[in-house]
Write a structure and sequence with these properties.
Chain lengths: 187, 880
C-alpha cells in the first residue's frame, strides 16, 4: 500500500485525489475495526480504535510526527463520518424496532447510540457552522469527542500547549452547545 | 442576529478572553464590549451561559457505545468452535435469532471460506427451526451470481441448525455509493444488477420480502450480492407464512416494507419491487422517500414525493445527484416502483431494470407519470409558445383567457372523474384537488378582468376598454399573485409576449426579467418555465438589436430544453428557431439552416397553422434567402403568409414580417413594380396594427422608401427611410436595428451620386454592425461593400480597394450563392480601381459585376452598371 508518510504527505499537500483515497482507506479500516470489535466483544475504548487503525496502516516505528498528526486528523474526521453514517442507517432501518436482522455487515447498527439521534445530527450541523468560523476548533472536537483522544495526546499532535487546548475546547464547547440549544428550539 | 455575520469569529475570541476572567473583572470586560457593540456583548453573554451548562459534548462520544455493546455480546461468541465440518473464525454479523460467522472448512485438499449462519442456542423453538429449514430450502433453489449461494447446511453436535453460505466481503449498497461518490449512472447500474438478482429469485417463485441496503452488499470488484433470505417466502407454498402468523410476529423493516406488508396482507413479488424503489430513491437522494397523503404506512393513499422534490427539500444532499438529474423520467420511474397499489408498480424487477436502461440510453421510458397528474401537469406546463419569432399573436390575451377557462373546465372534469373512482385512486383525487384549487384561482383571477362589464358588480370606473383591462390586469398580477411566484411568473411571461408584440420592448424586458427570476425561484434553474423566459428574453434582445446579449439566453434555454426531450418539443423548436435567427444575423448560414430544419421537423404532426410553426417556416425561408436560394424560400414564405391570412385575417400584424421576405424574392427577380406594390400594402398593415412607433413599422417604412428611391422618387423615398431611422432610434438608441435603414439610405444616396452623404450613412451603419457583433451578417457585409464604393468616390482609393477585396473574400466564403451582393462588392472594387486610375482592372471587376446583375435583373435594369463599365473601358483605352 505504499509509504504512509508519502501518502499522507500527498494528501496534505493539496492533492485532492490522494486526500480522498487516504480518507476512504482510513474510514474503511476504522469501520472494520469497530465492527469486528463489536462482534468479537473485545473490550476496547474508542481511542484504541484509532490507534489500532494507525498501527495497521504504518506497521513501522519510525514515522514523522507530522504524518501522525495528519493521520489522526483524518481518522477523527472518519470517526465523525462513521458515527453519522451509522445513525443514518439506524434511522433508515431501525425505526419501529424489534426487528430480526441478520446481516454480514451493519453490525454497528445493533448497538444503541449513546446520544440521541437528533442531537448527533444537530451537532454535525453545528460543527459545519463552526467550520466556517474556526476550522481548527472543529479538528479539536473531532479528535476529542469523536476519536476519544485525551487532550494530553492531542496537544503534541496540534503542536500547542495543553493549556491553550483547554481554552480552545472551552470556546468550541460553548459555541456548539449554544448552537444545539438554538437548534432544539427551532421547529 | 445574522448567523452568517463575520463578527462571529470575533465573538469567539472575545469569549475566550472574557471566560478566563472572573467576577467583577468579567463584568467590566462585558461592559466594555457592550460599549463597542451590544450585539457582540450579547453574543459573548450567550456563550458564557452555554459554557455554564452541561451538554452533549460532556458525554462519551457517539462511538463509545461500540465498546459497551461489544462487551454484552462477548459471551455469546462461538468463534473458535467447530460446527459440522467448519471451524468458526470470527463473528461477522449478528441478529435477533442468530449470528453469522466467517468460517473455514479445511482438509488436506482445499480450504474454503464460508459464512455460517447459526441459530443462537436457546432460541431453537419449533417456529424458528421451521424458518431456518425454510431458508435452506429457498436458498437451495437459487443459483445466481447476484445471490449469495448456499454451500451446505446441517446441525451441529447439539442439534442447532446452521447454514453455510458463500462468504461475501463487501459493504452495504448505500454506504458504498456514498463513500465512492458513485456517479448517477453507476448507482443506477447497481440497482439494475439488484433487479436482475431479485428477478432470478422471483422466477424461482421466491420473494425476498426484506430487501434493504444492509442485505445488498457491494464487493470490492463492484459486483452486487443479495443476502439474507431469512424471511423470504416461497410463492404457492403456505408453510412460512402460517408459522409467522401463529407466532404473532410481523417481520419487516418499516422503511422498506410495502403498504400491503404493513397491512399484513398476502404479499407477492410486488413487495420486492417496492423495496427496490425505496433503495433506488435512497441511492438517488441519500434519503428515504418522503410520504404524503397519510402517515400510516399501511395506507394505500400514502404517496411518495417525487425524488427530485425530496432532494429540493433536503437540507443537505448526500449524493452527487441534483434535482435536475431526477426531475422527469427518474421521478416517474421511482414513483412507479413505489406506487401504493401493488398492481400499479412495475410488473417485475426486470421491467424496472429495463426502464433504468432506457433512461441511461436516453430512450423514452415505458412508465408514464401517474395518469391524472400527468395530464393535469401537462396542461399546466401548457402552451409554452414563447414570443414566436417575428410572428406574434395579438390575440394573446384572449387566447390566454381561453386557456385558463379551459383549464378550469378540464380540471373540474378531471376531478369529477377522479371522484368517480375515488376508492381506487384516492391519491389521484388529491392531486386533482390541488390542481383544481389552482385552476379555480386562475379562473377567478381572469374573470375579474371582465367584472367591469357587469353593471351590478363593477366599480366607479365603469366599463373598461381592452387596453385599460390589460393594464389593470397587469397591475393585479403584481399585487394579487405575489404569493405564487410560479403562476405570477407564467403570467408575466405571457404579458411580456403581448407587450413585446405591442412594441414596448423596454417594458417587455422588465416583465421577462421578473418572469425569469420567478421561474428560477419557483422551479430551480433548469426548468422549462425558465427556458421559456430565457427564449423570450433572447428573442427580445434580438428585436432590440442587442444580439450579443441574446445569444447566451438562447443557448441556456436550448441546453435546458434539450434535457427535456421529448416532453417539450415545441418549446425546444422555438428555442432552436430563435437561435437560428441569431446565427443567420451573424452570417452562420449552414448552422442556422441546420437548426431551422431540426426545429421544423419538431412541428410535424401539430396544427400546421400554429403561429410558432409559421414563425419557423419564415425563419428557414430567411436563411434560404440569405443563401440566395430564393426559389426554395418563396413557397415557404407564401405558405406562411397564406396560413396567417387564413387564421388571423388579411391585415394581421405578422404579415408585416412575412412580407419582407417576399419583397426580397421579388427584388431578386427584378420585379420592382410588384415589390413596390407589396411594400405599400405591408406599410399599410403595419400602420394599421401599430398606432405608435414599432420596429416592424420602421422596417416596412425603410424598405418602401428604398423601393421608391429605386423607382426614381428618391426625395420621398429617402424621407421615408429617415423616418424609419428616427423611429428606430426612438425605440432603442443603442441597438443594431438602425443598420438596415442606414444601409438603404446610403444605397439611395450612392445611387444618386451623393458620395459624401452615402459614406456618412454607410460608415455609421458599419460601426453599428461591428459593435453588435454582426459584421459578417449579409446586410452588414453588403453595406461594407457599398461603404467601400462610397469611400472610393470620396477619393480614398487605396483604402476602398483593401475593403472591397476583403468583402469579396468574405462573401465568397459565407454567401457563395448570393450573386447580387457579391456583384455589389465587385462594383465597389471597380470604383476603387478607378479611383486609383487602374482602369483596366476596374473594367475587369465591373465586367464580372455586370454579368451577375444582367443574369438576375436583365440587361435593361442593369444599364447603369453597363454605362460605368463602358466609362472604365474608355478610360483604360485612353491611358494605354
Amino acid at each position: 500500500m505504499g509509504d504512509i508518510t508519502e501518502w499522507l504527505g500527498q494528501a496534505f499537500s493539496g492533492d485532492r485525489a490522494a486526500a480522498d483515497r487516504v480518507f476512504s482507506r482510513i474510514y474503511q479500516d476504522l469501520h472494520a475495526i469497530a465492527a469486528r470489535q463489536l462482534i468479537q466483544g473485545t473490550p476496547m475504548r474508542t481511542t484504541s480504535l484509532v490507534h489500532d487503525c494507525w498501527l495497521r496502516l504504518v506497521r513501522a516505528e519510525h514515522v514523522e510526527m507530522s504524518s501522525r498528526a495528519h493521520f489522526f486528523a483524518l481518522a477523527a474526521r472518519a470517526m465523525r463520518q462513521i458515527a453519522i453514517d451509522r445513525l443514518r442507517r439506524q434511522q433508515a432501518e431501525k425505526r419501529g424496532g424489534g426487528l430480526d436482522i441478520t446481516a454480514l455487515d451493519g453490525m454497528l447498527d445493533v448497538a444503541g447510540p449513546s446520544i440521541d439521534d437528533s442531537r448527533l445530527l444537530d451537532l454535525d450541523r453545528a460543527l459545519g457552522d463552526l467550520e466556517a468560523i474556526d476550522p481548527e476548533a472543529v479538528r479539536l472536537v473531532e479528535l476529542r469527542f469523536f476519536a476519544g483522544l485525551p487532550l494530553e495526546q492531542i496537544a503534541p499532535l496540534l503542536e500547542v500547549s495543553e493549556r491553550t487546548l483547554k481554552r480552545r475546547w472551552r470556546t468550541a464547547r460553548a459555541f456548539l452547545h449554544r448552537q444545539l440549544e438554538v437548534a432544539a428550539h427551532e421547529p | 442576529m445574522n448567523p452568517e455575520s463575520p463578527d462571529r469569529g470575533r465573538a469567539l475570541r472575545e469569549f475566550e478572553r472574557v471566560a478566563e476572567l472572573e467576577g467583577e473583572a468579567q463584568a467590566a470586560a462585558l461592559a466594555d464590549l457592550a460599549q463597542e457593540s451590544t450585539w457582540l456583548a450579547g453574543e459573548v453573554r450567550a456563550l458564557l451561559a452555554a459554557d455554564a451548562e452541561s451538554g452533549v459534548l460532556d458525554r462519551d462520544g457517539p462511538m463509545a457505545d461500540v465498546v459497551a455493546a461489544s462487551e454484552a455480546h462477548a459471551a455469546l461468541d462461538r468463534s473458535g468452535q467447530t460446527v459440522g465440518a467448519y471451524r468458526l473464525l470470527e463473528r461477522v454479523g449478528r441478529g435477533g435469532m442468530g449470528d453469522v460467522y466467517r468460517a473455514e472448512r479445511s482438509n488436506a485438499e482445499f480450504r474454503q471460506t464460508v459464512a455460517i449462519k447459526l441459530l443462537r442456542r436457546g432460541l431453537d423453538s419449533a417456529d424458528l427451526l421451521a424458518r431456518f429449514a425454510q431458508e435452506r430450502r429457498i436458498l437451495a433453489r437459487l443459483d445466481h451470481p447476484g445471490i449469495a449461494r448456499l454451500v451446505d447446511g446441517g446441525s451441529d453436535q447439539d442439534g442447532t441448525p446452521y447454514l453455510a453460505m458463500e462468504f461475501v466481503a463487501g459493504e452495504p449498497l448505500t454506504d458504498y455509493a456514498r463513500r465512492m461518490k458513485s456517479p448517477l449512472a453507476a448507482r443506477l447500474r447497481m440497482v439494475m444488477a439488484m433487479c436482475e438478482a431479485v428477478d432470478a429469485a422471483h422466477r424461482q417463485l421466491v420473494v425476498h420480502r426484506d430487501l434493504k441496503p444492509s442485505n445488498v452488499l457491494v464487493q470490492f470488484d463492484g459486483s452486487v450480492k443479495l443476502l439474507d433470505f431469512g424471511i423470504a417466502k416461497l410463492l404457492g407454498g403456505d408453510d412460512g407464512d402460517a408459522l409467522r402468523t401463529e407466532a404473532g410476529m410481523r417481520v419487516l423493516t418499516p422503511a422498506y416494507a410495502a403498504p400491503e406488508q404493513h397491512r399484513g396482507e398476502a404479499v407477492g413479488t410486488a413487495v420486492d419491487v417496492y423495496a427496490l424503489g425505496v433503495i433506488l430513491h435512497e441511492l438517488l437522494t441519500g434519503e428515504l422517500p418522503i410520504h404524503s397523503g397519510g402517515t400510516d404506512p399501511a395506507s394505500s393513499s400514502r404517496q411518495a414525493l417525487a425524488p427530485s422534490e425530496a432532494l429540493r427539500k433536503a437540507s443537505a444532499t448526500h449524493t452527487q445527484t441534483t434535482a435536475r438529474d431526477l426531475a422527469g423520467d427518474l421521478d416517474t420511474i421511482v414513483l412507479k416502483a413505489l406506487h401504493p397499489e401493488p398492481q400499479r408498480r412495475y410488473p417485475s424487477a426486470l421491467a424496472l431494470a429495463d426502464d433504468l436502461q432506457r433512461f441511461l440510453d436516453g430512450r423514452p421510458i415505458s412508465a408514464r407519470p401517474d395518469t391524472l397528474g400527468y395530464r393535469v401537469g401537462k396542461f399546466v406546463q401548457r402552451h409554452r409558445g414563447g414570443v414566436a419569432l417575428g410572428v406574434l399573436s395579438l390575440a394573446g390575451i384572449v387566447v390566454a383567457l381561453g386557456v385558463a377557462l379551459w383549464q378550469a373546465r378540464e380540471a373540474r372534469e378531471q376531478a369529477q372523474r377522479a371522484d368517480n373512482e375515488a376508492r381506487r385512486a384516492e391519491s389521484e383525487a388529491a392531486v386533482a384537488r390541488d390542481m383544481s384549487a389552482r385552476n379555480k384561482r386562475v379562473k377567478e383571477f381572469w374573470i375579474t378582468v371582465f367584472l367591469q362589464e357587469d353593471p351590478l358588480r363593477r366599480d366607479a370606473r365603469g366599463p373598461l376598454t381592452m387596453a385599460e383591462a390589460f393594464e389593470d390586469t397587469l397591475q393585479r398580477i403584481d399585487t394579487e399573485l405575489a404569493d405564487d411566484p410560479a403562476l405570477q411568473g407564467d403570467l408575466l411571461d405571457d404579458f411580456g409576449e403581448i407587450v413585446t408584440a405591442k412594441g414596448d420592448f423596454a417594458r417587455a424586458q422588465s416583465l421577462f426579467e421578473r418572469a425569469l427570476a420567478n421561474a428560477e425561484k419557483a422551479h430551480g434553474p433548469n426548468d422549462p418555465a425558465v427556458a421559456e423566459s430565457l427564449v423570450n428574453l433572447g428573442v427580445l434582445a434580438g428585436y432590440r438589436g442587442h444580439r450579443t446579449e441574446s445569444k447566451p439566453h438562447l443557448e441556456r434555454a436550448v441546453a435546458i430544453l434539450e434535457k427535456q426531450v421529448p416532453q417539450e418539443p415545441l418549446a425546444l423548436a422555438n428555442a432552436y428557431s430563435a437561435l437560428a435567427a441569431l446565427l443567420r444575423d451573424a452570417g452562420e448560414l449552414p448552422k442556422a439552416a441546420e437548426l431551422m430544419r431540426r426545429a421544423l421537423t419538431m412541428f410535424d404532426g401539430v396544427d400546421p397553422d400554429l403561429p410558432a410553426r409559421i414563425a419557423a417556416l419564415h425563419n428557414l425561408a430567411t436563411v434560404l434567402l440569405d443563401s440566395g436560394r430564393h426559389d426554395e424560400a418563396e413557397p415557404l414564405i407564401r405558405e406562411a403568409i397564406a396560413a396567417t391570412e387564413r387564421t388571423q385575417g388579411v391585415d394581421a400584424a405578422p404579415l408585416v414580417i412575412l412580407m419582407e421576405g417576399l419583397e426580397q424574392v421579388l427584388s431578386a427577380r427584378g420585379a420592382l413594380d410588384q415589390e413596390h406594390a407589396l411594400g405599400a400594402r405591408r406599410l399599410a398593415i403595419a400602420r394599421k396594427n401599430f398606432a405608435q412607433d414599432h420596429a416592424w413599422t420602421a422596417s416596412a417604412l425603410a424598405e418602401h422608401g428604398w423601393q421608391k428611391s429605386r423607382m426614381g422618387n428618391w426625395q420621398e423615398g429617402e424621407a421615408m427611410i429617415r423616418d424609419a431611422i428616427a423611429m428606430r432610434r426612438r425605440l432603442n438608441p443603442a441597438g443594431a436595428n438602425t443598420v438596415e435603414p442606414l444601409h438603404r439610405l446610403g444605397q439611395s444616396q450612392l445611387r444618386r451620386g451623393d458620395a459624401v452623404a452615402a459614406f456618412a450613412s454607410l460608415d455609421e451603419g458599419h460601426a453599428t454592425c461591428a459593435v453588435n457583433g454582426i459584421a459578417n451578417g449579409k446586410v452588414c457585409l453588403t453595406m461594407r461593400a457599398n461603404r467601400a464604393a462610397a469611400m472610393a468616390l470620396v477619393g480614398r482609393g487605396e483604402e476602398a480597394l483593401r475593403e472591397s477585396e476583403q468583402v469579396i473574400a468574405l462573401m465568397r466564403e459565407r454567401y457563395p450563392t448570393a450573386p447580387d451582393e457579391l456583384a455589389q462588392a465587385q462594383e465597389a472594387q471597380a470604383r476603387a480601381y478607378a479611383a486609383l486610375g487602374r482602369y483596366e482592372e476596374a473594367a475587369a471587376s465591373q465586367r464580372e459585376a455586370l454579368a451577375a446583375f444582367t443574369a438576375i435583373y436583365g440587361a435593361q435594369r442593369s444599364a447603369g452598371v453597363k454605362a460605368r463599365l463602358d466609362a472604365y473601358a474608355a478610360a483604360a483605352a485612353r491611358t494605354d
